[in-house]
Amino acid sequence: YISHNRTPTAQPTPPLHPPKMSKSSKPIEYALTCVAILLSAFWFFALPPLIRPHWEGLWSGYSPLAKQVILNQINVVYFVIFSLGMLPIYRGNYPFFEQYKISDKPWAWKSDKQKERDAFWKLSKKSLRLYAVNAFLLVPALTAGKFFLLGDNMSFSASDEEWPSYWELLRDNWIMTLVHEFGFYWTHRLAHLPQFYKYHKVHHEYKQNTILASQHEHPIDYIITIATPALMAVAVAAPHSFTLFHWVFWLLIANYDDHCGYSFPWSPVRWFPLAGLTDQHEFHHSKNMGCFASKLGIYDMIFKSDTVYNKWKAKREGMKVE
């Protein structure tokens, strides 16, 4: 993996641990994994027929450019809903949820040190400012630029002739995922080079992730590591608008899951063999090395950038990695 000189920070690196599950709770873990599979099945099989009758009406009266801008702004809705869902978990300190917390360190807002609490709230306010700039200024501008450069390369018709079949959904979702992950992996590694890390280090201001970390990006870093891989995926697959909506739903949930600070066994984006793990990304934030992939672990495995993580995990689990 590519390394760099770490930026000095007053914030200590929190100790991490793999989520704690006792032997007696294994049946519960398996049951929650089944919940994850069912949620994925709902996303793939049930969501399309539920939305199809309303899809054409949702877009009537809008220009092609307006449609793409609105579709790309769906992320705001997802982010608000996911954040509201996480708030009671963060505040409640419930043992059931806390067993899946990745970091051993207490949440910064619960610290007995005023300095740490103040730093957390300052960082949170900065996250909201960055999110406002990226979501409400940068994304519409990038969408307009893409539209004028590439044209209306997506069909917004919901006719029977153009509505994607399950096979087309599966094909295009996987094409976009593989292309996006490849693009994200290498742009993320690029962002850790000294020339670009001055922008990416903003994202690494979070050493202990919360949901706000998912939106904490310098605009230039956003263009490099977020917008560019997404554009690559869309350009290669040229998906139907619903397929794009369908894929972005999964992509954003995976991004929020990456940064929520917990490794939930019921996560619909983590249960299958090639999935990237939440604690891998938490490790990346904490140690600032390796694990450059996000939604899939395949490129970390291929390019051997998960070696340090695997040794750390093996040490934690009392095993030896050769």
- N-to-C SSE series? HHHHHHHHHHHH
State the helix count. Answer: 12
> How many strand units?
0
Relative strand content:
under 5%
Describe it.
- This protein is mostly helical and 322 residues long.
- The protein is built from twelve helices and no strands.
- The protein is globular, with a radius of gyration of 20 Å.
Key features of this structure:
322 residues; mainly alpha; 12 helices; 0% strand
Write the layout of secondary structure elements.
Elements: H1 26-59, H2 64-72, H3 74-92, H4 95-98, H5 114-150, H6 166-191, H7 194-200, H8 219-237, H9 241-259, H10 278-287, H11 298-302, H12 307-316
Short synopsis of the structure:
The protein has 322 residues and is an all-alpha fold. The protein contains twelve helices and no strands.
